[in-house]
């Protein structure tokens, strides 16, 4: 027989069926009382090394008593008995499950009662309270962390963070030292387009940084009537 109880349940009456071992039809054994000769009861909890005896006692049907044992109805329910489970065997220290065994009386087949102990009461009709997981990462938290990340921390060559950092510098502060170092000295057209601040004096084209108006690159310029105008850069 199996039971499912909330750990810490008190005054629990368990009904068991005692089979008559001398019967060829599986009939129940009647006439047992708490002090029948050689009748014993033991329980053991999950994790225990030894079983604990239950001291059987007289009990009124339907009324719990610790270790109480009585026959329910020998005529209509032959072999059905009640046992009052000691509170200690189903309390929270039993760690998940308990086994109770009754045996020893004449013509009595051993009775095994398995009890699963849970932290919730399934009969209470109340949804157990859960604790919110405060460590769970949300989409909004990830987005906030990305958007609030300092760009100065992204310095790994070839990373998306460094690329976006350079794009920001170009758009907002112009050609910075970092952009200059990574970009190198590109074509004249590219340098002038990036700079947006270039001067031509004599034969020298000077590209300057927007950020501090310092020189980014200089180029020697000559005339060529066949050359085309710079109209864009790709």
Helix and strand topology:
Layout (H helix, E strand, L loop, with lengths): L1 E5 L5 E6 L22 E6 L6 E2 L15 E5 L3 E9 L11 E7 L7 E8 L20 H9 L12 H14 L3 H7 L4 H8 L2 E4 L2 E5 L6 E6 L14
Parallel strand pairs: 1-8
Antiparallel strand pairs: 2-6, 3-4, 3-7, 5-6, 7-8, 9-10, 10-11
What does this structure look like?
The protein has 234 residues and is α+β, with helices and mostly antiparallel strands. The chain has 2 domains: 2-118, Immunoglobulin-like (Sandwich), CATH 2.60.40; 153-220, no CATH class. Helices cover 16% and strands 27% of the residues. The strands form 3 sheets. The protein has a 5-stranded mixed β-sheet, with no helix packed on it. The chain is rod-shaped.
CATH architecture of the largest domain: Sandwich
Q: What topology, given as strand order, has the largest sheet?
A: 1-8-7-3-4
Structural class: alpha+beta
Count of spatially separate domains = 2
Helix and strand run: EEEEEEEEHHHHEEE
Question: Main beta sheet, described?
Answer: 5 strands, mixed
Mean pLDDT: 81
| Proportion of residues in extended strands | 25-35%
Residues in helix, %: 10-25%
What is the 3D shape? Answer: rod-shaped
Low-confidence stretches: none
| Tally of DSSP helical segments | 4
Give the CATH topology of the largest domain. Answer: Immunoglobulin-like
Give the CATH level 1 class of the largest domain: Mainly Beta
User: How big is the Rg?
Assistant: 44 Å
- What is the number of E strands? 11
């Amino acid at each position: 027989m199996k039971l499912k109880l909330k750990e810490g349940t008190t005054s629990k009456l368990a009904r068991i069926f005692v089979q008559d071992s001398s019967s060829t039809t599986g009939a129940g054994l009647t006439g047992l009382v708490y002090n029948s000769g050689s009748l014993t009861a033991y329980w053991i909890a999950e994790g225990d090394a030894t079983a604990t005896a239950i001291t059987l006692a007289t009990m009124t049907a339907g009324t719990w008593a610790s270790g109480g044992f009585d026959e329910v109805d020998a005529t209509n329910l032959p072999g059905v008995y009640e046992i009052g489970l000691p509170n200690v065997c189903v309390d929270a220290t039993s760690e998940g499950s308990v086994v109770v065994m009754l045996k020893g009386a004449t013509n009595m087949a051993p009775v095994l009662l398995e009890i699963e102990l849970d932290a919730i009461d399934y009969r209470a009709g109340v949804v157990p309270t859960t604790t919110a997981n405060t460590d769970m990462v949300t989409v909004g938290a990830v987005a906030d962390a990305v958007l609030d990340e300092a760009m100065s921390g992204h310095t790994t060559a070839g990373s998306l963070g460094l690329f976006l950092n350079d794009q920001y510098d170009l758009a907002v502060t112009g050609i910075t030292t970092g952009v200059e170092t990574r970009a190198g000295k590109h074509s004249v057209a590219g340098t002038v387009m990036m700079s947006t601040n270039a001067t031509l004096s004599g034969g020298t084209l000077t590209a300057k940084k927007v950020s501090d108006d310092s020189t980014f690159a200089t180029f020697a310029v000559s005339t060529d009537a066949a050359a085309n105008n710079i109209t864009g850069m790709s």
